[in-house]
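Trying the structure run again after the queue cleared.
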Amino acid sequence: MTLYKRALLIWEKQLGPDHPDMAASLNNLGALYFRLGDYDKAEPLYRLALEITEKALGPNHPELATRLNNLGSLYYNLGDYDKVEPLYKRALLILKKSLGPDHPKVAAVTKHLKLVQEKQFN
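Done. Tokens:
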């Protein structure tokens, strides 16, 4: 974790707080916390990575879809399905538009969305 935090500080100093690589580092640190089950630390990192990515790359970039999917997965693990579905739906729209309907990432997010919808009705 210390290395991720150091990398984050270096990226911020070298590139500024709104650079896409800064968002990637925030996302990576969030993913580490997510894997460790520390969702309280992961959420603000995922949210900031999402914000920076959208600002830097625009509302239809595939990297934004990845950030949406990651935040959605966090909420899924928390059982907060009402927050998950709109994130996955938006990610799916972006991916279909930018990568095409047959891309593996589209299939993965479609699968995630179906799992959420099944949970909501059970």
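The two ends are 37 Å apart (CA to CA). Worth checking whether this holds up in the mutant runs.
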